[in-house]
Every structure is written in structure tokens, then in C-alpha cells.
Amino acid sequence: MKIKKNDLVQVISGPDKGKQGKVIGVKTETQRVTVEGVNRVTKHLRAGQPGQASGGIQVVEAPIHVSNVMIVDPETNQPTRIRTRVEQVERDGKTKTVRTRVSVRSGKDF
Q: Is the CB of residue 86 less than 8 Å from the CB of residue 95?
């Protein structure tokens, strides 16, 4: 997946279309990301659960599919696609392959 934790993304489809937020978590097995302030759902908690002082209703972010978000270009503050640039770099006498995420819109690195 091209989207990683702490990336700024914008929702491009669904009820929260147009909202921007930081990626809180990434689940690569199911190709879902959890975005701060997006896809908020109500969760009912029972009293006496470990880590919870009391029961009640809590509003939390639910994961959404990665195809419904686009990463935001830091230069233009607009959603953009991502390309991967592969470079050969010499370090300590050895050649290593370095992959860098690049914005399609502005050409800048992430």
C-alpha cells in the first residue's frame, strides 16, 4: 500500500467526501486505513471491561478502504496520486536500492 501511518489524506468518496485527516492506523491484510475524524461510529461499551473505568457510549473512528482516500500533496494541499522512484545508491562500498514516494502533481518527495 502506498499510504502509511501519519500521512495526510483526503476522502474522495462516501459520506465524508472532502474531509482531510491524518492516518492513525493501516491494516495491510484488509487494505483499510483509519483516518482521524473520518467515518466516526458509535460504540457501546459494557461496564467492567479491562482498560475502561465505566461503560457508556463512545464515538470512535472506523477503518475505511484505501481506495476511498488520496494522499494530500504538501506543496499544493490538493489530493494527488503517488509514484515510486527507484534509485541505486552507494553506501559503504555497496549498491543499495532506495524507493522514494513522489507526488504526481508536484513531483516532490514525501
A: no
Range of the structural domain that residue 103 is part of:
78-110
Select from 108, 110, 103 the least CA-distant residue to 80.
103
Comparing C-alpha atoms, which of 7, 9, 5 is closest to residue 25? Answer: 5
Identity at 12, one-letter amino acid code: I
Q: Are both 62 and 82 inside the same structural domain?
A: no
67 plus 84 within the same structural domain = no
User: With contact defined as beta carbons under 8 Å apart, do 72 and 21 qualify?
Assistant: no
Q: Is the pLDDT of residue 68 over 70?
A: yes
pTM of the model: 0.83
**Is residue 56 domain-shared with residue 86, that is, in the same domain?**
no
For the CA atoms of 19, 20, 26, 30, the dihedral, rounded to the nearest 10 degrees, stands at 30
Q: Where do runs of H (alpha helix) occur along 1-110?
A: none
